[in-house]
Amino acid sequence: MINLYKDEDKALVAVDCIIFGFDNENLKILLIKRDFEPERGKWSLMGGFLKKSETLDEAADRVLRHLTGLNNVYLEQLRGYSKVDRDPVERTLSLAYYALINISDHTEINEEYSAKWFNIDEAPSLIFDHQEMVRYAISRLRYRAQTKPIGFELLPQKFTMKQLQSLYEAILGEKLDKRNFINKINGLDILLKLDEKDMNSSRKGSYLYTFDELKYRAKVSDGFTFKL
Amino acid sequence: MINLYKDEDKALVAVDCIIFGFDNENLKILLIKRDFEPERGKWSLMGGFLKKSETLDEAADRVLRHLTGLNNVYLEQLRGYSKVDRDPVERTLSLAYYALINISDHTEINEEYSAKWFNIDEAPSLIFDHQEMVRYAISRLRYRAQTKPIGFELLPQKFTMKQLQSLYEAILGEKLDKRNFINKINGLDILLKLDEKDMNSSRKGSYLYTFDELKYRAKVSDGFTFKL
DNA sequence: TCAAAAGTGTTGACCCTACACCCATGG
DNA sequence: CCATGGGTGTAGGGTCAACACTTTTGA
Hints:
homodimer; alpha+beta; Nucleoside Triphosphate Pyrophosphohydrolase; Arc Repressor Mutant, subunit A; seven-stranded mixed β-sheet; two-stranded antiparallel sheet; 5 helices; 9 strands; 27% helix; DNA-binding; WH_DNA-bd_sf (chains A, B); NUDIX_hydrolase-like_dom_sf (chains A, B); DNA mismatch repair protein MutT (chains A, B); NUDIX_hydrolase_dom (chains A, B)
């Protein structure tokens, strides 16, 4: 077959990851300090180039694994960024992804990148159009967290109601009413209340819960839709 | 500056457009019949390759203008598709866009492409991953139509309440109650009721409306959010 | 016994849905 | 005068937001 495409322009394709974490108080993003040109020394999203043999999802996965050592992380593609001179070295298209990771997992951040967690409202300014990507990621996360039970990706497997509420407050950027929040969550009926208590935060101790994914899936296939 | 990127793989980048239209009854998409390889004779989305000198949005715009002759069309990027062998000729990344066009505009469909309008539920099967793109586009359109006043892009500038309701019914894929719909739309207070009537559909005639974009913008900057 | 966080229900306001009849007109 | 689509309002149910006190226990 003759190649009809041979006269078309090609481009470098990158993926850039907005990596969200939660420390029981603030929503954070993981940034790296570039020790290579261009923009050496500036803060940046973690990224990498798409290889011929992999999909975008696989590239994002690889990039993330390289930085955090984590597998099976929640990753969602956001959109493509394509300003012609967004990267001064060469025309590079970038596909932004966001990832949700549980900071308390034994995450071994690769020291090669001088990575650091920042509160989303205290992050330094970023290279290229990365700032714009972060803004978009936050808005997508806000939406998604209200329509899919993805919040649990950011929490340890066992968590308290307080932690869950703090997480949603951090994502949504607003305080929520404790009783209303708990009533709503309980109404969804997708959590499992354990017999175990977390004794770290109070003398009384607070019950631990887990997300019951099987029950959630069963309910979904029965017409249920998560709605916070 | 030395080029640090020179060993990285490059890829062809395409844009593919899901072009929506509305004929006062059904939501439609515009497909082209390929008269070139690969997949000659099959139905496909309209697409084209990204050039070095343009952004993705500009490429989508160009592709759309080439097919329909239209400028200033509502276009929104959806996401990238990247299966390694999605195009059998060469590794090609595609960014899907959807467009909303008003069929009654003097649209001159370029005959070079043997394009044809199909009801969204009666479209033929498409090449590559275009089917998947269409599904995603419909779901994004459904969401967007409930949170942004984009429906008007699919209607003539002057329209009746009946047309607007039929449009939303077509987008959402469900029948709506006439009085509730009208109450809700009037509650938004972003339409201008004209003195003019459309006499084509009934003896009594029905009032024409236009979308009052200025009022809408003013309300938005005053904290209002469109919600159907 | 006291400090500190956990846990627990109710009420009023508002919004959404269901629903049916009269109007205006051209033929 | 009649057939056809256009236009209009209300009542009941459900959902959401506001709100405060009691419990537990380690120090």
